[in-house]
Structure formats: C-alpha cells, structure tokens
Design goal:
about 350 residues, alpha/beta, Rossmann fold, 2 domains, 8-stranded mixed β-sheet, 6-stranded parallel β-sheet, 14 strands, globular
Length: about 350
C-alpha cells in the first residue's frame, strides 16, 4: 500500500468534509498543499488541517509540489481548467460532482485525462452511503428478485442557500446539484436508462433555476423509475439529508428510509435493519451519513490507485449519469421524451 502525497483545490463549504476525511485516511495519504483563489480560505484550511503549504495559484502549486493526485473540490465551472492543468503535469484527479456545468465541459474533462493516460474519479458520494451500499448488496443477492420499478426521492425544505448562496444564481439548479445524485443511484439499482421525460418547476421566488423536478426513466430491459428532486418541499418530518427510495422486484420489495432504515419483503417474510454509517469523530447528526460517505468515496479512490482498478464512479461512468441530466433538461424544455443516447 503506497503512501500518497496529495493536494486539495477549493477550501469552501463542502471541501471541509473532504479535508476531514483525508485526515481520517492519513495512514494512506498526506495532504501537503491546499489551494483557493481566496487567500484567507486557503490559509485558514492549512492551519485547521495541519497542511504545510497554501496557495492561491494552481499552476504555482503544481510547479512546486510533487503530487500523486489532486482533489478538486471547487464549483463546477472551474473543473475543466483545473483538471486540464493537473493532466498537463501528469497528476490524476478526483473531482467533486457535478463533474462540469454542461455536457461539453464534462466530455472535454474526461477526454483530457484519457489523453494523458491518467485515472480519474468523480466524487459521487451518494453511491457510498452506508444504507445504499447495504441495499445494493441485498439486491445483488437476489433478495427481491429482478428489480422492475423504483422511486428515488430527495425532497426537502432545508435551507441549502445558507451554506451555498451561489446556488440561487445558477440557471441549472436542482437537477444538476442534487438530482445528479438521484439519477446516479437510479442507474445503480435499475440499470441504464433509454428514455427520459422530465418536468421542472421554480417555486422559490428570487432564484434563477429550477428547484423542483420530476423525472421518469425508462430503463433497458423494461424497468421504470421515478426520480423526485426538490429543494422546495415541506415534508414532515423532513428527511434531509437522506434520500428515500423504494424498489419493486419480481420476488419482493425493498425500501430505504431516513435514519438508514431498510425494510425488505420476500417469500421468507418481512425483514428490518439499520445500515448505520461508521462513526465520524468530526461529524454530527444529521450529517453523519453524508460525512461517512465522503470518507468511503475517498477510501475507494485510494484503493483504486493502489490496485489499478477503474473507479466505480470513473469519468466514463459518470458521463452516463451526466447524459441523464442533459436529457432531463432537454425534455423539460421541449415537453418531449428524450433518449440519452441522442445527447452529443
């Protein structure tokens, strides 16, 4: 097992979870530099996490530091240029989702790493949440038979704008911010989608993008799923930050609820369990399931670097999810069913 030297670019809201998780993995990885265009944020992160160097210029950091990989934890519009700079220096990257603001940048980013012959991974942490991993094990074991229908729901009234105020200014909002997680999980349990129908709504005054979307996916093999995405709902109780989903199989059903609770039913009866995340010393409820998944995502990246395996959420895999995002927006704009294969 190789001990790796790495840097984190972006020292804002969510990157604090990345940095904490890298500290938890310090026996395998050392963060030797952080970078942010805001000098105060970079210096504060370096002090808080015991990082030796802080930078405000990525090119300077890449020139000065010997790095085994870079964790790009900035907002999506900056990802392509940062990934290209890393690729030019022969440095692999793990990139925060969404991979890019649009399909053109997403494809260009993956192509840049391909040309350089470098591994990359998208920090798609929902896949690594403890209850989703356990549910995937159950489905893979045949506990409910072939899955034929699914409903994947992330609906909340949580004030997402308090920590990330820029989200009120983006024109492609809920689907690209959290819907990309929901669509990715739908792929995990239902397989690839061949048709997408979507309607969006803008409920909250004063924002530029959609804060509510409903997506109907037709999957290869005949399955159907519904993806519910909302930052404008008022559920009681509010399940945030949990995604709730339910599956119908040919031999049973399964449901994942808030609090990491799983219930599944088949011919042997009804079964209940709680798939709790690992303890996170730096975390707090209700965020533990997210924070543990960040650490699990980053552990998977290190495992793949050690083994040479392709990451579960590689760039090419994530392009399949990104195609669903693009198809959803195209469907909402046109009122027509869109085939992801037509996205180009």
């Amino acid at each position: 097992m190789t001990h790796r030297r790495a840097a984190v670019i972006g020292c804002g809201f969510f990157s604090q979870n990345h940095l904490n998780a890298w500290n938890d993995l310090s026996e395998r990885c050392s963060i030797v530099a952080v970078c942010d265009i805001d000098r105060a944020k970079a210096e504060a992160a370096a002090r808080r996490f015991g990082v030796p160097k802080s930078y405000t210029n990525v090119d300077e950091m890449l020139a000065n530091e010997s790095l085994d990989f870079v964790d790009i934890a900035t907002t999506a519009p900056s990802h392509l240029a940062l990934a290209e700079a890393c690729a030019a220096k022969g440095v692999p990257v793990i990139v925060q989702k969404p991979l890019a603001p649009d399909w053109t940048d997403a494809r260009a980013l993956v192509a840049a790493l391909d040309r350089a012959g470098l591994p990359m991974m998208v920090h798609e942490n929902f896949r690594f949440q403890a209850p989703l991993l356990r549910a995937a094990e159950l489905v893979k074991s045949g506990a409910i038979g072939k899955v034929v229908w699914g409903r994947f729901s992330f609906r909340t009234g949580y004030d997402i704008y308090a920590g990330q105020p820029y989200l009120a200014e983006v024109e492609r909002f809920a689907i690209l911010d959290v819907g990309i997680h929901v669509l990715d999980v739908a792929r995990v349990f239902m397989g690839e989608a061949e048709s997408v129908a979507c309607r969006t709504q803008q409920v909250r005054p004063g924002i530029k993008g959609e804060d509510h979307a409903t997506v109907l996916l037709g999957h290869v093999g005949g399955g159907t799923s519904v993806c519910e995405i909302s930052y404008a709902s008022h559920p009681e109780p509010d399940p945030f930050p949990f995604m709730i989903f339910e599956l119908d199989g040919e031999a049973g059903s399964l449901r994942v609820d808030a609090g990491c609770k799983i219930v599944w039913k088949n011919a042997s009866g009804t079964h209940h369990e709680t798939a709790a995340p690992e303890a996170v010393a730096w975390g707090s409820e209700p965020w533990t399931v997210v924070q543990d998944s960040v650490r699990a995502t980053q552990r998977h990246w290190l495992d793949c670097l050690d083994s040479g395996a392709v990451a579960a959420t590689s760039g090419h895999d994530n392009l399949k999810t990104f195609a669903l995002v693009e198809a959803a927006y195209a469907s909402a704009a046109s009122g027509q069913i869109v085939r992801p294969a037509s996205i180009d």
